[in-house]
Amino acid sequence: FQSGSSYAHSAGQNPFGLPTPDSKVVFEDGSRANFNTTSGFVANGRVYANLTLGNNIALVSGSGGDLTLDTLTVEAGSSFTHTGTGASSLTIGGEITTEGTGNVSLAAGTGRIHFTGTETRLTGGGTGAITLNSSADVVHLYLERTLTMAGVGTALTGIEDFHMLDNGAVSGGACSYTANGSLIYSVNSLSSLVSSPLEWPAA
Question: Other CB atoms closer than 10 Å to residue 187's CB: what's the count?
Fold first, then answer.
């Protein structure tokens, strides 16, 4: 599937057709995979480019292999939970968008969570929680939603720019945030920083 094309999955087995790491299809950057059912979704060693979940599904995914996404969009009425095991990692190149009350909960194995894009934005008009249950690497972080870091010792590392926008907040008393660059915040979201330790170099 080339950039701009879409795949819609409403029934049946997974679209890859072969055991990992082989596949009959490739989702190239800029393509979209729309899942409207929980059946047929596999995460183990797979790349989905832009993944959209709709049709009020509650998708629960587990994987001992790496999962790679360009972006993740959870439409109103749907939710997504991913739990990696072993040495697996979770890589997301762009934004996470939630439009409804459904939650997004992400955990990797010892390979951690990696946000690799030039801009990582947590956004959307919904009220569902976005929770990271594993430590994550991120360079440019834009929060328009509340981000919860769960678990003792969970941390965000490698931050160069941390943009705390209106309606953005961080929570999770057992986590920390370590950065080397700019902290940019709106007036309405400044108070949210006090809920967790924030390590920042002196100006």
Answer: 7
How far CA 128 is from CA of 146, 148, 150, in Å, comes to: 9, 11, 15
Q: Cα–Cα distance between 44 and 63 in angstroms, integer?
A: 5
Residue 138: other Cβ atoms inside 10 A:
22
Distance, in Å, from the CA atom of 150 to the CA atom of 76, rounded to the nearest integer, reads 24
Q: For residue 73, with 0-12 CB atoms within 10 Å meaning exposed, 13-18 middle and 19 or more buried, which class applies?
A: buried
Query: Please, are residues 121 and 142 in contact by the beta-carbon 8 Å criterion?
Result: yes
Specify the pTM: 0.86
Q: How many helices (H) and strands (E) does the chain have?
A: 0, 21
Q: Of 18, 21, 15, whose CA–CA distance to 39 is shortest?
A: 15
Q: Tell me: the pLDDT tens digits for 127-157?
A: 888 998 888 888 888 888 888 888 667 777 7
- Which amino acid is it at 4? G
Distance CA 35, CA 48 (A): 11
Is omega for the bond preceding 21 within 30 degrees of 0, making it cis? yes
Residue 197: what pLDDT? Answer: 44
